[in-house]
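Hi Y.,

Following your request, here is the sequence exactly as I used it, all 192 residues.
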Amino acid sequence: MIGLLTLLGCSSKTFTEGSNAATRPGNSQQAPDGKSNHAASSKSSSSAEVKLIVADERQFQEVVDGHRGKVVLVDFWATWCLTCVEHFPETVKLHNEHATDGLAVVTVSFDSLDERAAVEEFLKHAEASKLDNLLSKYDGVGTEVPKAFGFEGVLPHYRLYDRTGKLRYLWDEPPADLKEKVAELLAEKPGE
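Below is the corresponding structure, written out as tokens. Let me know if you'd prefer a different format.
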């Protein structure tokens, strides 16, 4: 419960006190390899059905791997994270602006499994039906939850993979340079 209360304010709050965001120049950093390319659903509007998949870290990686050939933006968030909710429309907007250029977006909610209906309603209202939307299968807040997905626990948390599936950038807060980094990776041809 203390961990949950710690996260309620979010921005720069952590699941644990072990965040390494301060060591990242410009809060953006080169990162290790990942993969990418998975088909998104074809409808989008506030009335479009939202598909929300309960997933563990293996299933998450399969979704990212399924987007090979595209640039992949991943937004880790939760409905109880005010900063996450405030910046979520930017994630949807980036998808809408660049999907035809080769951008795929994956969202991973860290809400409780009991809150699935609320997450689906939020995603529907945010017009996020074209995105790959996942709900972490791990109930509760603790260090094992974010570590299972490969980070220290700051929400929101963003990752950006290039067309070859390499994880190129990650941020532990809403990135000021996200649009520029997306444009940079979209401009790259596979193999560059």
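The beta strands are 52-55, 71-77, 103-109, 132-136, 157-161, 167-171.

Thanks again,
Q.
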